[in-house]
C-alpha cells in the first residue's frame, strides 16, 4: 500500500511539473526579452540571452545576486519589494513584477519579470525560473497618457463652466466639476451618489432616457433641472460621447439659462406694456 501511495504521489508531482512547464512555455511564447534562473536563495545562476535590458550584456553584474541587489536600481517603494519577496517565500508564481533600473548609458528602463518556482522530483524547492521584458516604451506611452488625462482633469475641474460626466448606460454621475457643484448646491459626494434622472422633474425622465438610448444623439438641448434646494432651472446641455475609464459615457457642458430667460421675459413684458400704451393712446385719439 505504501509503495502504491508513493508511486501515486510521484506521478502527481510529475504531472504538476509538466503543467508548470507548459504554463512557463506559454509565458515565453507570449513574448519576452530574456530568460533567467535563480537558486533557493533567489540569486541568479543562469541568464542566457544576456544582451537584454536588465543585464546590459554583462553576466558578472548579475550572477550571484538577487533581483533587489542588482546595481543601478532606481528607487522603488520598499513595500513593493517586500510584497515580491513574500511571494517568493510562499513559493508562488508571479507575473509582471515591474521595477526600474538605469542601464550603462544612464537611461532609466522599465523592466517587467514573470516567474514560477522550480521543484525537484521529490517536491523540494530548487529556486525560480522566469522571463523578462523591457517595457520602457510601453510605460512611457502610459505615462504620457496619464499626463494627458491629468491635464484634462485639471482643465475639467478648474473650468468655470459647469461640467459633468454621466454613464451612458446607468445615467450615474461619474465626475462633476466645482462649477456644477456650486450651481446645483450638492457636495461632490452627494452628486456622485445621484443619477442624471434624479435632478430632473419626473415628467422629463422618459425623454432623458430616450436621449441616451442612441449613442449618436449628442447635441445641444434645453432641459429643466432641479437643484438641491428644489428650485427648477432651465439649462442648455451640450453633450459629447467619450470613453471614461473604459465605460461609455457622455460629457455634459451646462449653461444656466435662468438669467437669460428672465431677461427675455422682462423684454417681452416691456414690449407688451409699450404696445398696450400705444394701443391705449390710439384709442384716446380716436375718441
Describe this structure in words.
The chain has helices at 2-29, 78-89, 136-158, 178-184, 188-192, 205-213, 258-286, and strands at residues 34-38, 44-46, 94-102, 108-119, 125-134, 163-167, 173-176, 220-226, 232-244, 247-256. The chain has 287 residues and is an alpha+beta fold. The protein has two domains: 2-141, 2-Layer Sandwich (Beta-Lactamase); 158-262, PAS domain (Beta-Lactamase). A hairpin with a 5-residue loop joins strand 6 and strand 7 (173-176). Mean pLDDT is 83; it is low at 1-8.
Shape: elongated
Number of strands: 10
CATH class of the largest domain: Alpha Beta
Instruction: Point out poorly predicted stretches.
Output: 1-8
Brief digest:
With 287 residues, this protein is of the alpha+beta class. The protein has helices spanning 2-29, 78-89, 136-158, 178-184, 188-192, 205-213, 258-286, and strands at residues 34-38, 44-46, 94-102, 108-119, 125-134, 163-167, 173-176, 220-226, 232-244, 247-256.
Key structural traits:
single chain; 287 residues; alpha+beta; Beta-Lactamase; 2 domains; five-stranded antiparallel sheet; disordered N terminus
Question: Mind sketching the topology for me?
Answer:
Layout: H1 2-29, E1 34-38, E2 44-46, H2 78-89, E3 94-102, E4 108-119, E5 125-134, H3 136-158, E6 163-167, E7 173-176, H4 178-184, H5 188-192, H6 205-213, E8 220-226, E9 232-244, E10 247-256, H7 258-286
Antiparallel strand pairs: 1-2, 1-5, 3-4, 4-5, 6-7, 6-10, 8-9, 9-10
Amino acid at each position: 500500500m505504501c509503495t502504491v501511495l508513493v508511486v501515486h504521489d510521484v506521478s502527481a508531482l510529475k504531472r504538476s511539473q509538466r503543467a508548470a512547464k507548459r504554463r512557463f512555455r506559454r509565458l515565453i511564447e507570449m513574448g519576452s526579452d530574456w530568460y533567467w534562473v535563480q537558486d533557493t536563495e533567489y540569486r541568479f545562476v543562469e541568464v542566457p540571452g544576456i544582451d537584454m535590458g536588465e543585464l546590459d550584456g554583462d553576466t558578472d553584474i548579475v550572477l550571484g545576486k538577487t533581483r533587489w541587489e542588482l546595481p543601478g536600481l532606481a528607487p522603488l517603494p520598499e513595500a513593493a519589494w517586500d510584497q515580491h519577496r513574500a511571494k517568493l517565500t510562499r513559493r508562488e508564481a508571479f507575473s509582471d513584477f515591474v521595477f526600474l533600473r538605469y542601464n550603462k548609458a544612464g537611461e532609466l528602463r522599465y523592466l517587467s519579470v514573470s516567474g514560477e518556482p522550480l521543484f525537484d522530483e521529490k517536491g523540494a524547492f530548487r529556486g525560480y525560473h522566469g522571463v523578462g521584458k523591457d517595457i520602457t516604451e510601453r510605460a512611457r506611452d502610459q505615462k504620457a497618457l496619464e499626463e494627458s488625462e491629468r491635464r484634462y482633469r485639471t482643465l475639467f475641474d478648474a473650468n468655470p463652466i459647469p461640467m459633468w460626466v454621466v454613464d451612458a448606460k446607468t445615467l450615474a454621475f461619474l465626475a462633476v466639476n466645482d462649477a456644477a457643484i456650486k450651481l446645483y448646491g450638492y457636495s461632490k459626494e452627494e452628486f456622485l451618489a445621484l443619477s442624471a434622472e434624479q435632478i430632473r422633474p419626473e415628467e422629463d425622465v422618459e425623454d432623458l432616457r430616450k436621449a441616451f438610448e442612441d449613442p449618436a444623439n449628442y447635441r445641444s438641448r434645453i432641459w429643466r433641472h432641479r437643484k438641491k434646494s428644489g428650485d427648477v432651472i432651465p439649462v442648455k446641455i451640450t453633450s459629447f460621447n467619450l470613453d471614461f475609464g473604459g465605460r461609455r459615457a457622455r460629457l455634459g457642458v451646462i449653461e444656466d439659462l435662468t438669467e437669460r430667460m428672465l431677461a427675455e421675459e422682462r423684454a417681452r413684458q416691456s414690449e407688451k406694456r409699450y404696445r398696450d400704451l400705444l394701443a391705449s393712446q390710439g384709442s384716446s385719439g380716436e375718441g
